[in-house]
Amino acid sequence: SNMGGGMFNSSSSNGGVFANPTLTNCTISSNKAYKGGGMYNQSNNTEASPILTNCTISGNFSSYWGGGVYHESNRGQSNIEFINCTITGNVATNLGGGVFLYVGYQTITPVFTNCTISGNKGGGIVTYQYKKRSYITPTFTNSIVWGNFPDGEQISSEGSRNTKGIMTNPIFSHSNIQHYAGLPAGNIGINPEDNP
Fold first, then answer.
1. Taking CA 110 as the corner, what is the angle to CA 17 and CA 14, rounded to the nearest 5 degrees?
2. Confidence label for 26 from pLDDT (cuts 50, 70 and 90)
């Protein structure tokens, strides 16, 4: 598959058609694609904002961006929310082994609540801003981002030549994040295996 080996979700380029599915108790596993090995989500002039609850995204492969999930907000509002989800063991040969978040022209606020993102290759979560006025503000609550490869690439930012590739004030609450400088009070950076 070219985009979305396990699931492809996109709003209409003609406008007026939204793509806001709710997925509950699902498993997206062992899929392959160029972008979004497990899941590909894109807004195309209208909204595409899925919510995933109690889902496992594992063992998927992307030959470019987004081993587990590729999420793009481009000329249409597109947020994605993960609740009680595990994203593990996915691979991207370029960027975003676990989750790749791309924004073209606006601000998006992806949400991770009670989630574990670990053991992915190509980075845990990678954000990518294309335009100077595009922003990504992820929120992590009671979540773990740990043990993704290469070591140190847990939550990172990239960008085109038009941007500096900097996330806009990510929000952390009661989370365990590996190798994140400036982690605010109330969060920790301790190996979960050492902190049962």
1. 20
2. very high
Spatial separation of the C-alpha atoms in residues 78 and 56, rounded to whole Å: 21
- Contact in structure between 123 and 148 (CB atoms under 8 Å): yes
Tokens of 18: 């939204």
pTM of this prediction exceeds 0.85: yes
| Nearest C-alpha neighbor of 129 from the set 76, 78, 88, 165 | 165
pLDDT at 76 (0 to 100): 72
Q: Which residues on adjacent β-strands are paired with residue 192? A: none
Quick one: tokens of 39? Answer: 């899941």
User: Could you tell me which of 150, 154, 151, 149 has the C-alpha nearest to residue 176?
Assistant: 154
- 76-94 pLDDT per residue, tens: 778 999 999 999 999 999 9
- For 134-144, b/e burial (b = at least 16 CB within 10 A) is bbbbbbbeebb
- Quote the tokens at residue 145: 């981002």
